[in-house]
Each structure stands twice: as structure tokens, then as C-alpha cells.
């Protein structure tokens, strides 16, 4: 039998090993929490630690929101986790889709298409519907933005901002297409409009933002860096003057694209909990941004004034309410009640358009005719090649 000293030695070694493993584990957790911004969102949320924290926070948000009283909470949480985990997401490059929601989610509460947009139609079907709408005299509305415009916080697709707005305007001859994605900045909205949105031949473009572009000025992102194009990874974006200038440049480009061809463009500043309202929902996670919000509001106003668009200050729509906390799912996302109120403001703005809608010039159809004419034309003899010299 081993003597007492040997047993004591083995016990000390075992304790040392256990302590070493525990310290290493805590060290890994510390590194993940400390350097969260340097990892991709999918990487973080797929880790057990981060997903567990997210699940706990989401369960708390749902518990305090009375709109979820008849909803299967665990089923809803699973669907939310599915869209943010980005399984089988498109690989379109670090600038473009690394922040988008998981495509092809068909749940009871949340539906995304093949590009991660909140739609039952895939992108090809969306474009086909939009073009058929044009022939039927139905006006197309495109919504751009991040997770707030996507409808995060609503209990189902129908009660998102876009779902409610579509229901309100359907009888008046409109259809709403939601192109918003999680984490999108104005840079990504510009990409989305130019690469996708214009193919939907929109009569009205709604751009709803204000939070994602300046979040980094007040808080360190736990979900990784947002898309900044050429300036991704650059320290320059931490300068408020540069960040606001970059935001203005993106908005200016969006509005220039949008206001062509007699389109109506609405630039909307999204609400924040506690800013211009008495909501106390997660104020500790947002109050540092309150001082930046008047600045971003003026940047948006300036972009609108310089491009003949329309500005909607949604940050003040809950100003006169008592207990406006009912509108906020968290510090920035909206409950069913909040999303419905935003949709009503959009509806009123759209209905206030001139009763005589300007005749739409179908540039996509004209483009097809122009290309056909170019292909039919004989250019021989109008140029020289090396063989002619």
C-alpha cells in the first residue's frame, strides 16, 4: 500500500491540476469578454458562453413584455437564436453579409428568405412581384435599416413594422418589401439599395437608422465590428467627426440614388429608450448614446435638406406618453406596441403624398430596350484595331 506521504502528494497534484484547469477556463472567458469586438458575431454567438448569456437576456426581455403572454417562449427563443447564429449564411465577404441574419429560416414566429431578409419570398420572387406590381399599378415600398427595421422584438412577422405597414396600405395599392438586416449600418444600407433595392423598382424608400452608425462612439461592441467598408478595422472611425462625416456621406449617396425618378424617400431616426421619452428599459445600456443622438439627428436633417427627401424624427413619437416603456423590447428594439406606432407614422407620411402620383419612368424596361438597340447596331467601320494599322 502507498504510504501517507505518497497519498498526500497525489492529492496535492490533483488539486493543482483542477485549479490549473479552472484558472485556464476563467482566463479563456476573460479573453472572450475582453476582446469580443475582435471576433465575428457568428463566432461569438455560437460559443456556449455567449449564447447562454444571450438566451438569459432574451428570456428576461420576453418576461417583462406583456405582448408575449400567449407565445411559446422557448420556441420563440430558439427561432431568434437560429437567425442570429447565422448557420449556412451566405459568404459574400467581410464587408457585405458577415452581419446578416441566417437565410431560409421558416419558423412559427420568424421567417427569412435566401438572403436573410424578413420575407416569405426569396429574392428572385420579390423582384418578380415588384415588377408585376408595376404593371398592376401597385406602388412598391422598400424598407432599409438594421435589426430594428427588421422587426426584432415583434412576436411574429405580421406584427413587425413592415408587416403592419403592409397590412395598413395594402388596400390603397402598396406592397412593402423589408430589406433590413441585423447590424446594418448606413454603409450596408447603401450597398443593399444599390445592389438589391433598386431592382424592386421602388416608388417609396424608407431608411430607418441612427443607432448602429454611432454605437461604437459610446460603447464597445460585444458582437464584433460593424461594416465600415474601406475603414473596417481602422482607428479613424473612433473619431466622432470622422464617424458622423462617414454617416453623412453614406446617407447622401442613398438619398441621391433614391430621389431619382420621382421616388419618395423617407429618412427616419429610430427611437431610443429614455431619449425624448420616459422609458426606463435598459437605460444603463444606452444612456451614453443620448448625448450623441442630437448630433446624428442633425446629420440626418442636413442630408435630407440637401437632397429633397423627407425626414421623420421617430425619436420623439413617444414623448407625450406616460409609461413609454411599453414600446421598448430593450434599449433600442421595439415591442409590438412600439412597432405598430412607428408603422402608423410611416402610413400617415405615405398617405400625405400628392394624390396625383407622378408617372413612373420604368428605367428597367427602358434599359432592356436600350441594350437591345445597342446589340442590333452594326459598329463595324467605326473603330480601328491593330490589323488596320
TrEMBL record:
The keyword Ubl conjugation does not apply. InterPro entries: SGNH_hydro, SGNH_hydro_sf. The chain crosses the membrane at residues 12-45. Keywords: Membrane, Transmembrane, Transmembrane helix. Residues 144-340 form the SGNH hydrolase-type esterase domain. Pfam families: Lipase_GDSL_2. Coiled coil: none annotated. This is SGNH hydrolase-type esterase domain-containing protein.
Amino acid at each position: 500500500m502507498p504510504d501517507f506521504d505518497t497519498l498526500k502528494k497525489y492529492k496535492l497534484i490533483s488539486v493543482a491540476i483542477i485549479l490549473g484547469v479552472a484558472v485556464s477556463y476563467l482566463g479563456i472567458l476573460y479573453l472572450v469578454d475582453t476582446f469580443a469586438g475582435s471576433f465575428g458575431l457568428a463566432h461569438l454567438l455560437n460559443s456556449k458562453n455567449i449564447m447562454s448569456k444571450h438566451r438569459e437576456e432574451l428570456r428576461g426581455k420576453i418576461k417583462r413584455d406583456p405582448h408575449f403572454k400567449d407565445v411559446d417562449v422557448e420556441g420563440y427563443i430558439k427561432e431568434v437564436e437560429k437567425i442570429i447564429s447565422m448557420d449556412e449564411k451566405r459568404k459574400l465577404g467581410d464587408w457585405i453579409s458577415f452581419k446578416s441574419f441566417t437565410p431560409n429560416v421558416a419558423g412559427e414566429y420568424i421567417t427569412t428568405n435566401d438572403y436573410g431578409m424578413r420575407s416569405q419570398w426569396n429574392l428572385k420572387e420579390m423582384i418578380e412581384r415588384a415588377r408585376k406590381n408595376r404593371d398592376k399599378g401597385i406602388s412598391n415600398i422598400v424598407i432599409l435599416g438594421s435589426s430594428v427595421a427588421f422587426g426584432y422584438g415583434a412576436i411574429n412577422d405580421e406584427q413587425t413594422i413592415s408587416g403592419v405597414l403592409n397590412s395598413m396600405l395594402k388596400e390603397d395599392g402598396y406592397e412593402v418589401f423589408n430589406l433590413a438586416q441585423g447590424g446594418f449600418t448606413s454603409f450596408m444600407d447603401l450597398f443593399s439599395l444599390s445592389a438589391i433595392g433598386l431592382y424592386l423598382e421602388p416608388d417609396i424608400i424608407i431608411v430607418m437608422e441612427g443607432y448602429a452608425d454611432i454605437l461604437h462612439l459610446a460603447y464597445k461592441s460585444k458582437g464584433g465590428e460593424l461594416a465600415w467598408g474601406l475603414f473596417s478595422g481602422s482607428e479613424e472611425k473612433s473619431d466622432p467627426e470622422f464617424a458622423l462625416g462617414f454617416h453623412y456621406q453614406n446617407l447622401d449617396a442613398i438619398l441621391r440614388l433614391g430621389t431619382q425618378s420621382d421616388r419618395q424617400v423617407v429618412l427616419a431616426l429610430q427611437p431610443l429608450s429614455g431619449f425624448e421619452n420616459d422609458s426606463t428599459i435598459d437605460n444603463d445600456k444606452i444612456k451614453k448614446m443620448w448625448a450623441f443622438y442630437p448630433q446624428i439627428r442633425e446629420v440626418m436633417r442636413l442630408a435630407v435638406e440637401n437632397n429633397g427627401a423627407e425626414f421623420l424624427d421617430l425619436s420623439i413619437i413617444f414623448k407625450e406618453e406616460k409609461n413609454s416603456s411599453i414600446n421598448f423590447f430593450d434599449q433600442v428594439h421595439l415591442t409590438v406596441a412600439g412597432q405598430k406606432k412607428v408603422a402608423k407614422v410611416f402610413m400617415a407620411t405615405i398617405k400625405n403624398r400628392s394624390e396625383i402620383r407622378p408617372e413612373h419612368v420604368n428605367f428597367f424596361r427602358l434599359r432592356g430596350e436600350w441594350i437591345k438597340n445597342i446589340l442590333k447596331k452594326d459598329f463595324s467601320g467605326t473603330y480601328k484595331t491593330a490589323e488596320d494599322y
